[in-house]
Amino acid sequence: SSPCHKVSKVTGKAQDTTTGPQGSSNQTGGVVVRVLFGKAERAIGSVRFRYLDDPVITEASPAESFYAGGRVVMVTGRNLDVVQRPVLAVWVEPVEVQRMTCRTPRVTPDLKIKGVWFQMDNVRIHFKSIIVTDDLISISVADGSVCLSASQGQSFSYFPNPEFFPLNREAPNAPYRFKPGGVIAVEGQHLTRAISRHEVTARLGDEECEVKTLDHTHLYCEPPEIQPASADGGELPSLKVFMGSLQVDLGPVQYDSDSLLSPVPLAAQISLAAVAAVIILSVLVVILMRKSKQALRDYKKVLLQLETLEINVGDQCRKEFTDLMTEMMDLSSDVGGPGLPLLDYRTYAERVFFPGQHVAPLTRQLDLPESRRQTVEQGLQQLNNLLNNRLFLTRFIHTLEAQQGFSQRDRGYVASLLTMALHDKLEYFTEVMKTLLQDLVQQYVAKNPKLMLRRTETVVEKMLTNWMSICLYSFLKEVAGEPLYMLYRAIKYQVDKGPVDSVTGKAKRTLNDSHLLREDIDYSAMAQTLMVKNGVEVQTCPVKVLDIDTITQVKDKILDQVYRGAPFSQRPAADSLDLEWRSGQAGHLTLSDDDVTAVVHGRWKRLNTLQHYKVRSSDGATVALIPRSQSSGGVGVNQVFQTGEKTPMLEGEEEEGLRLWHLVKSSEDPDIPKHRKSSMRDRERAKAIPEIYLTRLLSMKGTLQKFVDDVFVAILSTKRPPPIAVRFFFDFLDDMAEKHGIDDPETVHIWKTNSLPLRFWVNILKNPQFVLDVQVSDSMDAVLSVIAQTFIDSCTTSEHKVGRDSPVNKLLYAREIPRYKQLVERYYSDIHSAASGCYQEMNSTLTELSGQSFASEMNNLVALHELYKYINKYYDQIILSLDEDSSGQKMQLAYRLQQVAALVENKVTDL
C-alpha cells in the first residue's frame, strides 16, 4: 500500500485523496487503503484501491494556438477514462533578446567569397552555424548585394550590384522633367535580388523622395510637391538612391511648374496671379477638394481590390494546381515510354514542311500514264543529278526569286520540295544553305542587318526552318517532347473543366484575353456512366462532363477519357459515333447538336446541350457511344463558316439566314464594316468587369506556371550539351558577324533568335500537333498563342515595358519574362563560350541522318516532278540565267536542263 500524498477535502462523511509520487506503483492490481490521523492509523478493509495502466496519448491535434489560448485540442489514446482532472500545461520562461545591427563589408566582384562571420572580440561566429528564423534577411552593399536565406547552415551570398538607368535615358545630359503630383519611375535591373523596399531610401536634393514600390525592374518614389533645393549647391536637385552602402546618382530633376514661369517681372507676375486667383479660386477650391478626396478614395479602393484579388487568386491557383497534379499523376507514369504520342518522322516532316496542306507531296504518288512513266522518271533522275550541282541549284533558286509572280507561298513550297529531294544528301543541302545564307547576309548588311531571318521571304529561310526541324527531331523525341506533351495535357484538362463556346471558341479558362468567355454562365459538372462494349462483355466507366456541353463536346470528352494517353489518330472520330442516352431496358434516345427539338428565336438557333435534354447526373445518367447509322448521318451539324467571322451556318438553312449559337450570341453582324466591328469589340471589352476576367486569366496562368517553366527550361537548358545543329549554326552566325565587321552583340543575338526560337521553337509551341499525335482546338490554340508570344518576348533584347495601356496578354507574364530572358541570354552565352570547331561532328551527324531509314521515305520523284512545274513555268528565264554564267556554259547546264525537259514533257528544243 501507498499513503495518500495529499488530502484535498475532509468531511465527517467523506474524504477525497490524491495519490502523489510516493503513492505510485510499478504494477497494476488492488491494494488496501489506510488513512493516517496524526499518529493514529485506520485501515478500510472493505475498500480496495486498484492501480491501472498509465494513460497513453497516441494523437493530439491541433498542435498550435494563439497567445490568448482557449483552443480545443482533441486527444486520442488509451486508459484516458482513469484520469480525473486532465490538464494541458505549458512551460514558459522570460525571453531576453539583444539586438545589434551590422553593415556588410565591401567586396569587389572579382573576388571569391570564402566565408562570412561575426567577429566578437576573440569569438568568431560563422553564418553557417546560425539558426535563422523564417524571415529572409537581405542587405545591399557598395559593389554587391548580400542575401542570407532562412535556414540553418546556409551560406552568406554576394550578388552583383543592382543596375540603375538614368532618369532621362534619351538625353542623359538633360534634366528629367517632372510634373508635380505624380511619382518618379526609376528603371533598372535586379533591383530586388538582395534587398527589400523597406531598406531602400531615395532623396531628391535635400529632401526625401518616399519609396512607394520596388520590384525587379522599377522603383517608384514620391517626391515633394515643391521642387527641393540641391544638396550639393547645384542649380537643380539630383535624385539619389541609397541601398546600404550603395549610392546611385540618377541625374537632375526639373519640375515642370518652374518652366511655365515667363520672364515677366516679379511684380507683374504677382499682380496677374492675384487677379486670376480672385476670379477662379473659389471654383477651383471646391472642385479640387472634391476631386482629391474622390481620387484618394478611389486609390485606396483600387489598392484594396488588388490586394484582395491577389490573395483570392493565389488560393484558387493552389487548389487548381493540386487538382491538376492529381489528374496528371496517372498520365505522367505512362509518359516517357510508349505513352508519349510522338509522331513518326514522316508525319512530323510532312506537317512541318507543308503546314496546312491536306495532301502533301510526301503521301502522294506520281500520277503518270504507264506509257510515259519510264521516260518521265528517267528525266526526273537527270533533274536530280542537276540539283546536285551547286551552281545549277543556286542559279535556279535566285532566278525563281527574281520573278515577279513567284509568291511567298511558292518560296516556302519550293524550299520544302528541295528539302525532300535532297534529304538523303544533307551535307550537300547544308553547304548550299550556307552559301545562300552568306548571300542573304551580304544583302542585309547593306540595309538593316537586324531584320535578317525575321520573316520567311526567301527560299533559304524556309530551307533553314526545315533543316532545323530535321536536326532537332531527336532532341524533341528525347528531351523536349515530354514537357511539351505535359503542357498540352494540362491546358486541355484546365480548358475542359470550364465552359467552352463551341461556336466562337471562347472559354472561361484561358490565358488569352480576346478568347475569354466573360459572361457568367450557370453550369455544373456532372458524372455520367458510360457503357463500353469489350468483346461480348459490357463494362461501365465514369466520365466527367458539363451540363452545358454540346453533344459533340460530350462525345469528345468521353473519347478523351476512354482513350486517355492514346494517340489521337488511333481513336474513332466523334462524327462517326452517336451518343445514346439510356434509361432502363428499352429507353434509348440518340442525342445530337441539332434536331427537331432545337430552340429557334428569330434568326438564332441554339445548339443542343445535355441541359437542353434534361440529362442530370442525379438521375444516374447512362450513355453509350455507338457507330453512327446511315440514317443519322445527316443529323450532325455541318458548319459553313462566313468570311471574316467564325459563325457556322446550318447546311440547308443558310438561305433562311439562321445563325448558330451555343453559350453566347455573337455581338457582331457579318454585314457590319470592319472598322465598326472593332469599335463594338472595344465597347464590349469596356463593359467587362476587370476583377472578374482578370481573376480567370491569373488563375489559369498560376495553375499552368510549372508546366510552362518546364518546357522553357527543357528548350533553353545547357545542363546537357545543346543539339549539335544549334551549336554549329550559332557558330556560323558568329563567323558571319565577324566577317562583315558586325560588333554589335544585339544584332547577333537577333540573328540567333530569328534562326532558332522564332523560326523553329515558336512554331512547335504554337502547334504541338506538328510533333505530337494530338488535336488542338481553337480554345487551346488561343492559350498556346499567349505562351508562344511570351517565349518570343523572352528572346528579345529590348526591355519588356508594360503600362496601364498594355494588352492584358502582355501584362500576364510581365513578372516572368525577365527570368526567361536570363535563361535565353545564358543559353546563347554558354554556346558561344563553348569550344567551336564542331564542323566535323556536324558532318558526321548529317551523314547519319541522311542514311537513316526515314530519309528513304521522302517521296523523291513526286518532289522532283513538282519542282519541274516551276522549271516549266519559268523555263526561258532559267535557261537564260544558266547561259549567262561562264562556268555554267562549261558544264553545259542549260543543255542538260533542255534534255530533262525533252524527257519529262516531250519539250521540243533547238538543241
UniProtKB/TrEMBL annotation:
Which domain of life does the UniProt lineage start with? Eukaryota
The cellular component terms of Gene Ontology attached to this UniProt record, alphabetical and capped at eight, are: plasma membrane; semaphorin receptor complex
Q: Where are the transmembrane segments?
A: 266-289
Task: Write out the ranges of the annotated region (Disordered).
Answer: 1-26
Q: Where is the IPT/TIG domain?
A: 54-130
Which residue stretches does the UniProt record annotate as biased composition, category Polar residues? Answer: 14-26
Alphabetical keyword list: Membrane, Transmembrane, Transmembrane helix
The answer, when asked if Ribosomal protein is one of the entry's keywords, is no
Annotated GO biological processes are: negative regulation of cell adhesion; nervous system development; positive regulation of axonogenesis; regulation of cell migration; regulation of cell shape; regulation of photoreceptor cell axon guidance
Q: Which InterPro entries match?
A: Ig_E-set, IPT_dom, Plexin, Plexin_cytoplasmic_RasGAP_dom, Plexin_RBD, Rho_GTPase_activation_prot
Question: Which terms does the record give in the GO molecular function aspect?
Answer: semaphorin receptor activity
The record's SMART domains line, in alphabetical order, gives: IPT
Name the UniProt record assigns to this protein: Plexin B3
Q: Which organism is it from?
A: Tetraodon nigroviridis (Spotted green pufferfish)
Taxonomic lineage is: Eukaryota, Metazoa, Chordata, Craniata, Vertebrata
